[in-house]
Amino acid sequence: MTVAERLIRYCKVWTTSDPESHTHPSSMREFDLAKILVEELKALGIADAHVDEHCYVYGHLDSNVVKDVPTVGFIAHMDTAPDYSGKDVKPRIIENFDGKDIDLGNGVVMKMDSFPYMRDLKGKTLIVTDGTTLLGADDKAGIAAIMDALEYWKDHPEAEHGRIAVAFTPDEEIGEGADLFDLKEFGAAFAYTVDGDSVRGFSDENFNAGSADVKFTGFAIHPGDAKNKLINAAAAAAKFQSLLPEALTPEHTEGKEGFISLRSMSGDVEHAQLSYILRDHDAGKLQKMMDLMAKDAEWINAFYGEGTCEITFAKQYRNMKEILDQHPQVSRIAWEAMNDLGLDPYKEPIRGGTDGATLSYQGLPCPNLGAGGNNFHGRYEYCVVEELETASKLVRRIAQRTVEDSL
């Protein structure tokens, strides 16, 4: 089975996670892919492959070298984002892409004016959607690359590698992928998530993340008798949002710039609620955002009356760079492997989070690699087959570099 065939097979399995379920896994359908992967792992000689009760798949490939080599791990997630439908995915292959607009079908056209960077993919082979679903290359491309590397090692026992740990996680897209990850079962000294876009990209830092829930309590009375009595909770919520700097919204930021993003709003005269996510690569700047919002809440209470506004903050995940800087060999091995393959790599800060960020703080240094997908979480998602093939080679080269690094 080619790595592209693997990706297509995995994409057809419906694995959308459910942020409202409060169960682990969040959707039982994630087990459908987990069971497929366990059977494939066993067929590839991974005798201990299994899925646990929370839908985490684990397996290990024994070392084929005599020397003492640390166990290196590779991780990808099985779920797809709830932002867009992942049911009944119908991938198709475009060979020798001409660099022009792509008619995906169902009245949907992927216009190069919207995605100008895709013109550089002229001549490549793409896997795309039919315009009605996302593709699922995030992160089934990572799974396919890891599985393809395992198949290579099965067919080429002469290729040196130490002990390899693999894991496929549920619920990464709803921020719970590492919550019940069994580090002892995994048993790696360090690992890499294969969960990025370009195979040339390497990420050893990500956003610090927080959230803010803002509740507003009003006082309802007939508008005809409202003078100096009515407190409109919905209006107070609108006023609070207007106090936040427009420059700090996601649509006005890029690179390492942080943001405050309004994710949902609801309300009436008596009760209203706003929910936000806050992101910044600098933990100090993230705290300043929280301080700013807290002051705005104080202003609302001073203007409308004490008790009108109540704000609650939560911190979600942290920038893995703080941990990875303490383990420079982990990033160095990957960077050297990318150079070995002639990839001309570049570092790309993640404008989001990964399982690797949480795992790094749990004691498993875990930067991120790309697998060739892009335009994630929507119907314009695609994967470059040539990059997917290279991602498999990168997994193998990292394992070989780990052996060489242990000489």
How does this model look, in words?
The protein has 407 residues and is an alpha+beta fold. The protein has 10 helices and 18 strands. The chain has helices at 3-11, 30-43, 137-155, 183-186, 233-243, 283-304, 321-324, 328-340, 355-361, 385-405, and strands at residues 50-51, 57-61, 72-77, 92-94, 102-105, 108-110, 126-128, 164-169, 190-196, 201-203, 208-217, 259-267, 271-280, 309-317, 346-347, 368-370, 373-374, 382-384. The strands form 4 sheets. An 8-stranded mixed β-sheet has the order 1-2-8-3-9-16-10-15, with helices on one face. Strands 4-7-18-17 form a 4-stranded antiparallel β-sheet. The longest helix has 22 residues, at 283-304. The protein is globular, with a radius of gyration of 24 Å. The model has no long low-confidence stretch (mean pLDDT 96).
Total E-strand runs: 18
Q: Ranges with pLDDT <50 over ≥5 residues?
A: none
| Mean pLDDT rating | 96
Q: Considering DSSP H and I runs of 4 or more, what fraction of the residues is helical?
A: 25-40%
Specify the overall morphology: globular
Radius of gyration: 24 Å
**Could you give the order of strands across the largest sheet?**
1-2-8-3-9-16-10-15
Order of helices and strands: HHEEEEEEEHEHEEEHEEHEHHEHEEEH
Helical element count? 10
First-last Cα distance: 34 Å
Strand share of the residues?
A: 15-25%
Main sheet record: 8 strands, mixed
Structural class computed from helices and strand pairing: alpha+beta
